[in-house]
Amino acid sequence: MKPEIKINNDILLWAIERSGLSVDEVSKKIPPFISWLEGKKSPTFKQLQIFAQKVYLPFGYLFLEKPPEEKLPIPFFRTNRANKEKIPINVFDAILIVQQRQEWLSNYLKENDYDRINFVGKFRNKRFQIDEVVADIRNTLNIKESWAKELSTWEEAINYLTDKIEEAGIIINSSGIVGNNTRRKIKVDDCRGFVLIDEYAPFLFVNSADSKSAQIFTLAHELAHIWLGESAGFDFRHLLPADNPTEILCDKIAAEFLVPQKELTEILTDVLDIENIARRFKVSQIVIARRLLDLGKITRNEFFEFYDEYISRDIQKKGEKEGGGDFYKTQRKRLSTRFLSYVNQAVLTNKLLLREAYQLTGLKGDTYNKFMKEHLY
After folding, report:
1. Contact by Cβ (8 Å): 94, 206
2. For residues 282 and 148, is the Cβ–Cβ distance under 8 A?
């Protein structure tokens, strides 16, 4: 007979609430669950392992006397909603995974005498003009004011911008799931992205489930956070910031960085042809619409209508184009080739154990070896 284990009901119920699932949903996945709550049966060790996996809980938490107090390591801002609203567990865990990567990389760079990144927090607690921050970002990334116009599509623009950002020392993780778990998707409405500030290893996370057109604005918004030196996460609904001074400021910096106001106003006429304006700037129509809202050229209702219709078409096109995809190409974007290069370097110089590299990357065994040897670049 398998040994049964007594677990505090408060822990079981807390675990379910934490996961975002309901008691009914859990009982369908684990039929004996209701009998545990009613005290008719106690779970076996194996059943508890399965339960922990289903509710995304570290196994050891089940044996605590009372639920632990879990706190998100960064502020999380929501557009038009209270910031105290519960953060979905998939977003919470994604932030913790990226934080773990950052802690390792920051320590590794310090131990190997790398220099601090001098632009992180450069404008923290300072008086400045928006143009001043934008100019410094462009200068640091070594891109011209007209950089986007010289590219054929906004897809090329986001790839170009990503490369420039990583060359400057910032790590970008672009993913729509938690780690490598394809069953744990991060909904766009829950999180468009987040930023973890560090003077040696700043990390940006962009939700790749979002449309490319929205991703580029998120990326620009996150860049502003780096220069202001403030970590944050955000859902950024309708590409609009939360009612927070820093979020509003980062939004203005991002908008000016992507579509300079002076250049845009010079070409505006009474007839607003968003498609042609977007073609001129080589950015998405949604970014132009967002900029026109800033300038008072369209109303909020007009912007919302345009946004919803455009994003709906954009997401549909994205779904039609996507198949299984190239696993290794996807991993380069999820993890960042820059980050992976440091991991590989640390392993090869015996400064990181393979099992630790597996944990940091989510890649294991032959998959890890093949990736590092054949697909890193």
Report:
1. no
2. yes
Partnered with residue 194 across adjacent β-strands are 205, 233
Alpha helices in the chain (DSSP H): 9-19, 23-29, 33-37, 45-54, 89-111, 130-141, 154-167, 212-228, 245-258, 261-267, 274-281, 285-294, 300-321, 327-335, 337-348, 354-361, 365-370
For residue 250, the one-letter residue type is C
State the Cα angle at 67 between 232 and 194, rounded to 5°: 10
pLDDT (tens digit, 9 = 90+) per residue, 298-356? 999 999 999 888 877 765 665 544 445 789 999 999 999 999 999 999 999 999 999 99
Q: Quick one: which of 47, 46, 41, 55 has its CA closest to 13?
A: 55
CA distance 44 to 79: 44
Give pTM, 2 decimals.
0.90
**β-strands 171-175, 177-178 pairing:** unpaired
Neighbours of 376 (CB within 10 A): 14
Instruction: For the chain, list residues with pLDDT below 50.
Output: 320-323
Please, are residues 331 and 179 in contact by the beta-carbon 8 Å criterion?
Answer: no
What are φ and ψ of residue 66, in 5° steps?
Answer: -145, 160
The answer to whether 235 and 79 are in contact (CB under 8 A) is: yes
Tally of CB atoms within 10 A around 30: 17
Digit-coded pLDDT (tens) for 240-292: 888 899 999 999 999 999 889 988 988 888 788 898 888 777 777 888 998 99
